[in-house]
């Protein structure tokens, strides 16, 4: 089976000149400004189920996006056809569309002096994610699943074990002189065991390790064992009565609260006044124990990049400082709408105007261990899973399906499911009474264990 | 039935350089290391979108995406490769990559294809002209005006129109061959209402496998705009949702997302083949009250979830999932049908050529019953009446599902009273529908906005339901 050799061959020969040429073509076609982006990626996925290979997937793709301006009008096009005819269509399609859009005084590329790219190496790309021969990729996936399945007699079925990897390359160029190129890689191991209790009830859970380099991954065995631990502890889950008790959110679900903050400080929601944090800059919006950081510059971070989707250098910013709202996340457009400066958070897809994305977004850790936080709760719920989409960023209303473990006298007593947890974020942010010391970056958003008071559990 | 569109085949053959011999050669290469089955899935999608925001045409975009996915199946194993370069060399190389899943002697060469007829469920569109773009723009400008004039408290309006034309060609080693051209359009309006410090949102939208004329005659921009504005203004006066178990009445149409989450996903054949679904092994058993009959139907004209052929080239059909409360069967693709010895129900779908097909829903709905919707509401002493929902989610293994009400009211003494704030409803799939005690005579399908996610793949779907009453369900509010 082919490996790195053929992968390298499939990497395209598209270079920065190819992308700046497209910008030049757009200007010749009448654009006053233009911005082109080229993205390509390779991926492979290996899924082993019950010890047998179930799926192998391997492929690559590439595409171009173009954004043009005529004065303060703008339009975008994209294509996977990189032939001269495809590019012709890309440019002329954009120029035809730009005529129908409105003059918007806030639309336009960033100013020349804003552009830039971080120097130094952020360690975002490692060749080694493709270094394993196929047989070893399968072995990684098989080992993760096998570790989960041999961990407990009640685990006799499985959604599988996987080993995936991907690399990507992106070139961004515009008519104001910016051109930047970056590469990234990622790889991951996961296991999804299914456990069954004697009464027939089934539970599944999942665990993974994801990194930019193969050598940073946890062992397949540790991933499988953790997946098994998470699955088995759910067996025999029951409903509890409707009540109001302290909740401890495990890091995986505490990020959902952090994610809601992220949604609420997104410049697009803020300038439309469709966020419960709109108009609150400089105000106390959370307890004085809460400090939230967005940092696109962390070495090796999943949310790190050298430049944002408009060619501005990424940066570190304090979003919440001891409960005071210090910064929104903005791109050029939303910054101009709000009379502020871009925070370097433009996120560029292929076929549309830039949206807004965080870098590495996290809540600063406290000093207590998760065990201490749980031990201090006489009667409450340790929330381990949330499902649904029950957050309204406009009003702050928060209501999610949940499951977890009931806390009795500071001990995890029994599993709980088929309940909801609800509150309002405006109050929840003031009611976080404990923050754990367990801040671990498993992806671009990270949050320690949180204890939250005053939320409602709905159950029986 | 009508012959498959000769134009779609011609498009792939003339515009993208395909021919029978090339397809046969690729399939031959795909089976060169053994394998039971191989298929090629070509896709060419043109998509466009327009947005009016703050009364300005802020965004206009269009895109073209094309590629081919090659699959080889050997027993339960699937090898998959895709390429967006459709040259014979790259197609052959992708075929060799997918072939590596199998290990055995080369299979017999593939010769000749049988082309499936088309059910003709939707209009065949050309690629958009400038005049058409102007007409779409007019639609969303009308929506913007209608939302703003509905009420002075409407302070923000975003109206968008997004459509795509997806051409597919599927050729398989079993000789099956299908082409289809699938239009999909959606108009969406979302608004913010403000009254002093009080702010609320509302949204509405719809469409389907329709062309522009649908929005001029069937469902106008004003219809969606007024609906979005009405919801936002209503929410300004909403009280906290109650918390706990109570009777729940679901209105007709989009609340059918209950079925999608509670039973739909759990009845996809792959989960049952692997025995990872809470419904595994329950065929023939009561999984709902005897008033409940649920079908999945991919053959409804112009519906968002409908397809002439699925993404494996198989014709879609109407499949009874639950009949009078009894679980009848699963939704299947080719792989699960073969491995489970059941019929392929034409539910093999995928997000794009970059994705492996799997069993997915099309339009999933509950058939109408006999009850008068007003009687259903009158029968509730204290409960919740929910008529609009946001998204939902399910854990198919333990059966727990949620869906979030975006428009709901208290029912007090048999009467609809105060509107309540957003709340998540939670239940257990194999149990919830056993609590259905009344089924209305007012079956309605949703407006055409559903997108379903599974294993990282999104596909358009439809849902529908009459008004129903569940004697108990857990409502996740904060109130009493």
Write the layout of secondary structure elements.
The complex is a heterodimer of chains A (460) and B (480).
Chain A: H1 4-10, H2 16-28, E1 33-49, E2 52-70, E3 73-79, H3 84-98, H4 134-149, E4 155-174, E5 179-196, E6 202-204, E7 207-211, H5 220-232, E8 243-244, E9 247-249, H6 251-264, H7 267-271, E10 292-295, E11 316-321, E12 324-325, H8 332-338, E13 346-347, E14 355-356, E15 360-363, H9 370-375, E16 379-387, E17 397-408, E18 411-424, H10 425-428, E19 432-435, E20 445-446, E21 450-452, E22 456-458
Parallel strand pairs in A: 9-16, 15-20
Antiparallel strand pairs in A: 1-2, 1-4, 2-3, 4-5, 5-6, 5-7, 8-22, 9-21, 10-11, 10-15, 11-12, 13-14, 16-17, 17-18, 18-22, 19-21
Helix pairs in contact in A: 4-5
Chain B: H1 6-15, H2 20-30, E1 37-53, E2 56-74, E3 77-83, H3 88-99, E4 114-115, H4 130-150, E5 154-172, E6 176-195, E7 198-208, H5 213-217, H6 221-236, E8 243-250, H7 257-264, H8 269-273, E9 294-297, E10 318-323, E11 326-327, H9 334-340, E12 348-349, E13 358-359, E14 363-366, H10 373-378, E15 382-394, E16 400-412, E17 415-420, E18 423-428, H11 429-432, E19 436-439, E20 444-445, E21 451-454, E22 457-460, E23 462-465, E24 468-476
Parallel strand pairs in B: 4-6, 8-15, 14-23
Antiparallel strand pairs in B: 1-2, 1-5, 2-3, 5-6, 6-7, 8-24, 9-10, 9-14, 10-11, 12-13, 15-16, 16-17, 16-18, 18-24, 19-24, 20-23, 21-22
